[in-house]
Structure formats: structure tokens, C-alpha cells
Design goal:
The protein is mainly α. The chain is built from two helices and no strands. 91% of the residues lie in helices and 0% in strands. The radius of gyration is 16 Å and the shape is elongated.
Length: 66
């Protein structure tokens, strides 16, 4: 059903956008953690950011394949 396909595409796009939003909000946290020599926090945020970047990429790749 076309209506269902549109709804699914919209939901996947919103998920991808949400992950990208998380990436953008994480970048300043890394700089702040590094500024106070908090290597553990900077590393944790970097790892989480990588998960969100990869997930956003996979979701967008899925959309491109439709």
C-alpha cells in the first residue's frame, strides 16, 4: 500500500534525522570534556557519537535503496 510505504519512509527519515541531531549535540560535549582533561568522558561521547553516525548512515542508505 502506497500510504503505508510513505508512512514508513517518513518514520525512517525521522529516525535518521534524530540520530544526526544526537551527533550534532555530542560534538560540543567532546570539546568540553577535552578542555578539562576528562579523557574518559570524551571517549565515551565519541563512541556514542559513532554509533549514532553509523545508524543514521544505515537508515539513509536504506532510504536511498527504495
Amino acid at each position: 500500500d502506497l500510504t503505508e510505504d510513505v508512512a514508513v519512509t517518513r518514520a525512517v527519515r525521522r529516525l535518521a534525522d534524530g540520530h544526526q541531531t544526537r551527533v550534532r549535540s555530542a560534538r560540543p560535549l567532546i570539546a568540553k570534556a577535552e578542555a578539562v582533561d576528562d579523557v574518559a568522558t570524551a571517549d565515551l561521547v565519541t563512541q556514542r557519537m559513532q554509533v549514532h553516525e553509523k545508524t543514521a548512515w544505515m537508515l539513509r542508505a536504506m532510504l536511498a535503496g527504495q
